[in-house]
Amino acid sequence: MCPAFLFAFICWISKMKINFPCDFAVMIGMTTQAQVSETELKVRIEKALNEKGLKKLITNLEKELNGEHTFLPHDVEAKIREEIVNAGVAVSQYGGWYRCIAAYLLLPRFEELLAIKSMSEEKNVAPIVQKLRNEALRESLSTFGLEVPARYARTSNSTGRTYVRLSREQKQQIVENFLDALPTFEALQDVLGTLPKNTNLTVKQIRTLVKRYLSIANRLQSVAAHE
């Protein structure tokens, strides 16, 4: 591990506990797009797009942005496109709009992502990369007054997988909607009880589904009763 990388990695770890002065923070990748000139923005976007270590991360984010369920509103996308154009980035040369926008959104944690990605051969850095990615998205889009779904994303230290943290109200709504179907499944159970055990595959699958649903419903009702 080279000294330069070790310094960058220590900086990232330290930032989790210490608020550094603004000038030092900029040195380690905390610069936001709103704080840089168009020339510097061009340099940073192109550098991100040319970094092999970020290729997969940018590609995955590009797919999210260009998908049917993109988290990026059209008006915010238009503003980001305008900034990229004003900066003079050759969009077609770098794979199109959504690839350039993906690089733009990752800039607040660009240097840190590079430092962590260089560790990929030594250890599993997926949880750290995911955390930095979500922080970059939050910081980039907060300048447009936008709260993105990524702010709910957390990473399990044990598995490296992300999960969604829902509010109490959201959980309650999901449970209520789930239990709305309880009468239907109870009626299905009564009907299935009148059928012979040796039935076709479809009926067996329905029987399994009803059993699982009622088991989950019972647990949810039990939890609700103790709250």
List keywords for this structure.
227 residues, mainly alpha, 2 domains, two-stranded antiparallel ribbon, 2 strands, 63% helix
Overall description:
With 227 residues, the protein is mainly alpha-helical. The chain has 2 domains: 3-164, no CATH class; 168-226. Helices cover 63% and strands 3% of the residues. It has helices spanning 3-15, 22-27, 38-50, 55-65, 74-87, 97-106, 110-117, 126-142, 168-179, 182-193, 201-226; strands at residues 153-155, 162-164. α3 (38-50) packs across α6 (97-106). The longest helix has 26 residues, at 201-226. 20% of the residues are buried.
Itemize the secondary structure elements and their pairings.
Elements: H1 3-15, H2 22-27, H3 38-50, H4 55-65, H5 74-87, H6 97-106, H7 110-117, H8 126-142, E1 153-155, E2 162-164, H9 168-179, H10 182-193, H11 201-226
Helix pairs in contact: 1-7, 3-5, 3-6, 4-6, 5-6, 7-8, 10-11
